[in-house]
């Protein structure tokens, strides 16, 4: 089992992930700021981290493996956020992910015309900022902080083995 300090940090990551998802839905549905597709993808690691941390505390098996998965999850989060930040700042070109509505269903001619008439959110557009920072730039910092914290937890788990 993890020591109390590791458990505390996992609880903080769990709480922050929960607050991040609730805030994202609040910003979207209550404040009316529409997210781009990359913004939606950036939510996935927070949902995964909630499930993995719950598994760590409830199942109490494979904790080392789950912490490693959490590290990989936030590396993915960092990479997606860094890419999104690069698009916002004009370092990278928008990919096809930014304009696609749904890849799961076939698109008819009428659906395509409807999508063109709707206002699509560009991955370049920042519609919401906190203290002058886009949520993507905040996500970069948070992901990096979580990666460092989880690496320390993983190393402590290795030392206590």
What does this structure look like?
The protein is mainly α and 161 residues long. It has one domain: Up-down Bundle (Bromodomain-like), CATH 1.20.1550. Helix content is 68%, strand content 2%. It is built from six helices and two strands. Strands 1-2 form a two-stranded antiparallel ribbon. Strand 1 and strand 2 form a beta hairpin. The radius of gyration is 18 Å and the shape is elongated. The model has no long low-confidence stretch (mean pLDDT 84).
Task: List its salient traits.
68% helix; two-stranded antiparallel sheet; 2 strands; 6 helices; Bromodomain-like; mainly alpha; elongated; 161 residues
Quick structural gist:
The protein has 161 residues and is mainly alpha-helical. It is built from 6 helices and 2 strands, in the order H-H-H-H-H-E-E-H.
Topology readout:
Elements: H1 4-30, H2 37-41, H3 44-58, H4 63-89, H5 109-117, E1 129-130, E2 133-134, H6 135-160
- Which strand-content bin applies to the residues? under 5%
Average pLDDT figure: 84
- Pattern of helices and strands: HHHHHEEH
Count of alpha/pi helices: 6
């Amino acid at each position: 089992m993890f020591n109390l300090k590791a458990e505390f940090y996992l609880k903080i990551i769990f709480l922050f992930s929960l607050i991040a998802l609730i805030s994202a839905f609040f910003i979207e549905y209550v404040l009316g700021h529409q997210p781009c597709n990359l913004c939606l993808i950036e939510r996935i690691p927070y949902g995964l981290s909630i499930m993995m941390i719950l598994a760590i505390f409830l199942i109490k098996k494979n904790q080392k493996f789950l912490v490693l998965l959490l590290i990989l999850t936030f590396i993915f989060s960092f990479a997606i956020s860094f890419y999104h930040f690069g698009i916002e700042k004009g370092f990278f070109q928008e990919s096809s992910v930014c304009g696609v509505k749904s890849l799961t269903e076939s698109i008819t001619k009428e659906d395509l015309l409807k999508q063109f008439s709707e206002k699509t959110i560009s991955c370049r557009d920042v519609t919401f900022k906190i203290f002058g920072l886009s949520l993507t730039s905040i996500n970069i910092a948070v992901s990096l902080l979580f990666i460092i914290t989880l690496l320390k937890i993983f190393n402590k788990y290795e030392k206590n083995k």
